[in-house]
Design brief:
Layout lengths: L2 H16 L4 H7 L4 H9 L6 H11 L17 E2 L22 E8 L13 E8 L11 E5 L16 E5 L10 E6 L5 E13 L2 E10 L9 E4 H5 L7 E9 L6
Parallel strand pairs: 2-4
Antiparallel strand pairs: 1-2, 2-3, 4-5, 5-10, 6-7, 6-10, 7-8, 8-9
Amino acid sequence: MSLKEDIQNILRKYKDTIHGGNNERAAKALGVNAPTFWRWLSGKNVPRVETLEPVFEALHATITLPGREPEHQDLARDVCFVDAKVVPAGDGLPPVASEDYLAVPLVDEVGAGPGIIPQGRLISWFLVWRYQKSVMHKHDLIAVRIGNHSTSMLPTLRPEDIVLVDRQDIDCATPGRIMLVLDPDGAGMIKRVALTPIRKDGGMQDIRITFYSDNVALNPPVVYSLRDDYGGDWRKAIGGHIVWAWSDMEGR
C-alpha cells in the first residue's frame, strides 16, 4: 500500500470514528473546506504533514520508523498451545491450530478503558477465534466481564457475561449502539449511546452524550457534555464498540 493510500485510509477513519462519517464536520475540524477534504479522501490531493497532526492525535495514532518500537501496540496476542486439553467430542480430530486464535486481555467492567491495560487490572486472557465474522480484521480488542451485580443491561446482557470490545470503533453516530463507555472519572460501563448536537447561531457548540441502559426502569439515563465533561475528546468518553458477547445460558 502506498503512502497516499495510507493517508486516505487514515482520513476516512478520522471522518468515520471521530465525526460520525460527516465530511463537512471533519473538514471544519481541520480548518479546510469540504471540497478540499473530499479531494484528500479521493487521493486527488495530499494534505501537508502539519494538517494531519490533529488527525493522528484524535485517533491516538503514531508513525513508527524502521527499527523503532511503537509506543502502543495492539493488546491482542498470538497464541501458542502447549499440550492443549481437548474435550471428549474432539477426540480423533485434527489438533487445535493455535494460529486460528487470538489471546485477548480480560478485565472487569470498571477497569476497562483506553491505552495499555495495567497489569493489576488483568483478570486473565480470553481466547477468540480470529475468523469469527465480527472479529476478522480487528486487532485492538479487549474482553470485558460484566460486574457481578450489574443488571443495567438486562435482558440483553447478564451479570458476569463477557463482551468483546473493538477499541478502534468509537463511532456513535447511529443511536443505540452498545458501547464500552467511560464516565468523566474514567470508570468503564457497558451502555447504549445517543448523541444530541447542541447548536447556536448555526454552528456546533457541543454534543450531549446520553448513556442509557436496557433495564431503564431501574437505571435512568445519564447525560454528559462532550465539551465540559470530556474536554472535547471522544476517546475519554467512548472506549469502543461491543462486537461479540458470551452469555451464561445455564438455567434459562
